[in-house]
Amino acid sequence: MPKNPAYDYIIIGGGVAGTTAAETIRARDSQGTIALISLETEHLYSRVLLPSYIRDKIPREKVFLRTLADYTKHGIDFFGGLSVVGFEAAKREVHTSDGGIFSGVKILIATGGTPRHAPFTAGIEDYAFRLQTVEDADRFHAFIAADTEAKGKNAVVVGGGFIGLEFIETAFARGYRPHLFLRDKQCFGNQLDAQGWGVLEANFGRHGVTVYPETELRRGTFTEKGFTVGTSNGIDIPTAWIGYGVGVERNLLSFQGTGVRTNRGIVVNEFLEASVEGIWAAGDVAEYRDLRFGEDMLVGNWTNAFLQGKAVGLNMTARIPADRAAFSAVPTYSITNLGLQITFVGITEPREGWETIARVWDDGMSYERIFISNNTVHGAILINRFQDKMAVQKLVETQKDISAHKETLHDPETPLASLIAA
Fold this sequence. Notes:
By secondary structure, the protein is α/β, with parallel strands linked by helices. The chain has helices at 16-28, 50-54, 68-73, 134-146, 162-173, 194-206, 302-316, 389-398, 417-421, and strands spanning 6-12, 34-38, 76-80, 84-88, 93-96, 101-109, 113-115, 128-129, 154-158, 177-181, 210-212, 217-223, 226-231, 236-238, 242-244, 248-250, 266-268, 279-281, 286-290, 295-298, 332-337, 340-346, 355-360, 367-373, 376-383.
């Protein structure tokens, strides 16, 4: 390979957004040269399947979705194990950690995110785990597989988001006793109200999960009894391991100050184009303009990354601007945790002036919180109500006026699907 290769398309990021974009470009442009630059040496794999691999529900090889042969077959040059150390937007040059300088006609930034720095890991790295990459999963899988006396041991989980719930599920499945540290008073911050948190908290109690609200990890020490962590509340807990689910930071550093506008992510318009001509962004790193809601969105999940990869590939190969299509999708994410099916649809963080309607069923395990603005549904949180997911998506997509039916929504026996035809 030449030291300073030139390509028609350069994709920075080998995850699902970058790979989908590269394959979409190839399907529409059979002649253009494509470089895919990835920080990881591994080819595309499913981050969604990592928990299943850790729990031995699937073998490791099932996590991987592409091989080098797949990239070669599509004429995509894969460069693994390279980080971006410099970026010149005006020249459309990408400087990589091996000293190379890639120049491109069109560049896509799909660098995703990196887990936030976890406190107090110095000296206790062997007992601290994340769940972002396949390397993380390999470490954790090997650790718990080697622990043949897991039953009854404590496991500490830090963080009340989806990754934290994955660690709890794994701990419970392996016989550990989970202890959940929350910086806030509850999981998912203000996205849940007291009733919704009550459903989750009661289920934790049924499964032996001890919850510590407004508690942070302060230290880790080794004693004759083994490894122990200390909290901001002065509690000491012996534990077999710590699982960190404290969110991610978007990988923006290499692009800040280069002329490409950044905020929480790479700022792009509805076509996923950045502020500099010839540069796009997609996936977790893209802060895109959603015309439906009239606001900038930053969504971090697998489905959204795939859909944006497809959309940006189409727009990067558009012959004329009129052929471009605005990206539009209703963000969704689902997880099963200790028997509860938890689904987030659309915007699930209340804004000033919004209304929310909570619906709770008599079984104490089913709950919905619907987010409404200007008499239209903007999102919902569903617990054990997955059957309502499609109805919520449709209501968000169409922005149907529900003012005449809003009061009936307080009755949990009112089907959400009935609002679509009403």
